[in-house]
Amino acid sequence: MSKTVTNDPFVQVRNAVLETVAKAKAQQDKFFAQFQAETEKAQKAAVEGIDKAAAAQRANLDASVLATKAALEGFGKIGELTQAHINALVDARVAGTEKLFSVKDAATAAQLNIELIKAEQAKQVELAEAVAKLAEAVAQDVLKPIQVQAEANVKALQEQAEEGVKVVKAQAEANVKALNDLKAA
Predict the structure, then answer these.
(1) What average pLDDT does range 11-37 have in this prediction?
(2) For residue 26, which of 184, 135, 136, 138 has the smallest C-alpha distance?
(3) Residue 75 neighbours by CB under 8 Å, 6+ apart
(4) How far apart are CA 36 and CA 172, in angstroms?
(5) SS3 for 103?
(6) DSSP characters for 70-137?
(7) Rounded Cα distance, 84 and 47, in Å
(8) Contact 63/145 with Cβ under 8 angstroms?
(9) CA distance linking residue 130 with residue 139, whole number of Å
(10) Is 160 exposed, middle or buried (0-12, 13-18, 19+ CB in 10 A)?
(11) Of 123, 125, 147, 167, which is the most exposed, with the fewest CB atoms less than 10 Å away?
(12) Position 2 confidence tier, pLDDT thresholds 50, 70, 90
């Protein structure tokens, strides 16, 4: 490029100002390009976070379904256990009543009645203990899928938080670098 000589004394000043403005504009464009790139990274991370949250919600729902299924199965088992004990008690009462009718004296009938009552009370205690033990097992079965999913959620949240910190830190470092580049120009 050839230079032309001019008599205008402000040409050099104008050229220097235009050159400085062009450099500042180039630095500003560079800064905004970096800022936009970091913003797009942050947006992408946010979308991924939303996708992960939606997946976690689906997993939470699945865990709830499994817990409900375990509860229903457990309550069914408790019902079966209770029904079996009730049937056994009814059978024992019928047999006891038949024995009472076959007894001829009152003292023997009273003694037999006491034994029947004690046997029925023992069966009731046995039922209560069996139901309590089964209910505890059912509660553990119900809590298993929820506990597993809760642990998975905590782990995912920790990973997401760590990733978010990395993205924010990288964006901040890029912004600081761009600002320093602008200051240096």
Answers:
(1) 83
(2) 184
(3) 138
(4) 12
(5) coil
(6) HHHHHHHHHHHHHHHHHHHHHHHHHHHHHHHHH--SHHHHHHHHHHHHHHHHHHHHHHHHHHHHHHHH
(7) 55
(8) yes
(9) 14
(10) middle
(11) 125
(12) low
| Token output for 149 | 């999913």
- Report d(CA 26, CA 29) in Å as an integer: 5
Q: Which two tokens stand for residue 1?
A: 């490029």
Using alpha carbons, select from 74, 32, 62 the residue that is nearest to residue 149.
Answer: 62
Distance from C-alpha of 141 to C-alpha of 74, rounded to nearest angstrom? 8
Length of the chain: 185
Nearest of 92, 173, 75 to residue 131 by alpha carbon: 75
Q: At which residue do the structure tokens 């990973």 appear?
A: 159
Q: Answer whether residue 34 shows pLDDT above 90.
A: no
Distance of CA 127 to the CA centre of its chain: 37
What the block records as the tokens of 61 is: 């729902």
Residue 9: its pLDDT value, please?
73
Q: Could you tell me the pTM of the whole model?
A: 0.59
